[in-house]
Protein 1
Amino acid sequence: MKSKLRSTFGATIIELLTVAVIVGVVASMAVPRFQRAYERMQFRSANRDIVSSLRLARSMAITDKIQYGVYFDYDDMTITIFQDLVNPTAFVYDNGDPVVRQDTLADNVQYVFTDVPNNAIMFNPNGSAGFIGGGNITSVGTAEDQYLEHYHNVLRSTGRVRSYDTWDEWAQEHAGDAY
């Protein structure tokens, strides 16, 4: 009798190629979802930066007993935290005001809009906020051709920041408010 020299266990090259093709097809279907998720995370991160900047300015104003402000620059897509020393009663960012920090928003944030005429929100040493307008900040962006938006509101009396994922959520919270 002849003994078998070959084992019946193992995989052929055809089986290995078949598995590689299946893994490749599944991975190619998942990449667009990962891309969209990554862009959404970038947008959320930019909105956390907005809230973080506002809270940091408020905290610094309370700690240092000096008025601090946050300026939103639409053209450069930057957020600037500054000491409001040049003209503290005007609620405006002047060239002589010392800059504490400046952040650039993520690329997929297309614009940031405020309903504050000078695009600056000030925080007083007692923690309250000073601005003309409603103290609302809206950021708009895209992720894989999907429109994204986020809303923030600074409360004038306390300087606290509230964030909303949708316009309906913001509108429901602010129904009846007079600005």
Protein 2
Amino acid sequence: MIRKETKEDFEEIYNLVKTAFQTANVSDGKEQDFVNQLRGGETYIPELALVAEENGSLVGHIMLSKATVTGGDDRHEVLYIAPISVILERRNEGIGSALVAESFKLAREMGYTSVFLVGDPAYYHRFGFRSVADFGITTTHEIPVEYVMACELVPDALGKVHGKIDCF
């Protein structure tokens, strides 16, 4: 079952994210703290912070937050995924894909048109993510451009969006 996170879930989410990233290929060990930091900021969207629950236990979590692509005087509000987590023993069962699909559906319903993330292209291309370079967008961080990706929730949503994204 996929549902919105609640305050009662926060401690379990913290532990789920911490444990999930202990086995990640790339991790700074602070992803669980980043989740708490996002909740306390202006970019947090409670409706787009979701958990996957099975038999009363959380098995996955995803959070989409607000970000901005800035180019000159133009500012475009977008979303970014940070992080997505699935417990190790339940990976490769479609839980992460279900969380992405549900979060994208809700984001579209809320009027959002694009989502960004930093991640493994081999995994995220299946959801329609492409390098931000394909859209003429850069990042202010020194992350290799192939790992900074965007996905249009609405066709051609990024067609006229140019500039830098600084949310990672």
Protein 3
Amino acid sequence: MDIRAVDLSSTTGRSALHGAAPVTKLLSFAFVLAAVVVQQNLLVIMAIGMALSALAIGSRLRLGLVFGLAAYPGIFAIVFAFAAAPDALTGSLFVAKAMTAALAAVVLICTTPYPQVFAPVQRIVPGVVGDAMLMTYRSLFLLAEKSDRLRIAVRLRSGLARRQPIRAARAAAAALGGLVLYAFDLSQREYDVMRLRGYEGRLRATLPHPLDPRVDAALIVAASALLALAIVFRLAGAGLTPYSWLPTAGALLALLAVVAWRLIRR
């Protein structure tokens, strides 16, 4: 996962979803995740997935990044489905639920900067845990840059890996060990700098106000509607199964409408 691409998407986006309040997006994510968990109808899960896809397209997110990240849990779900699913329909349900839940999480992190995602959590967990979340985020960028430099150095010093695989493996192992030592040294230096600047055991991350309260209200209503739909279809059981194509058809029409709108805007 390229965390730098995710951060660029969350901090430079200018869509309505980017401007919504982080707490609203976290609450909506919780509603959608609950809808995926309680639902056992494949068509309803597909409807939720298409609704999230329409949201991602309408927010002008990089579709390769979004769907690529959402596909990772699907790979493990396929393995689990082959091992535990009694039939193909149940296996498809496992994969669809995993990818839909992952898609909701990816849309959240691609439209909300990392500090804003963990700022509400920081107020609940102990101070050292919340501070570690924020400082780890910064350290990941420094380690990613260091890793890129080491990778280039390994290629230059070991030559072509196909011609000298043993030499390349040794250089890669040495570079990895150096990166681990650099991470320990980086954490110690960051802590020393924070203490010199007056760190007393708590970092505060402020939450921005929503740019348009109507977007926040619409987001909560839409997420609540998805959760209510999932609960109704779960409680009704076989009674609503013949009509489960209706939410899928509605989500498909919404997805096509968003795609057409994006094409017209271009």
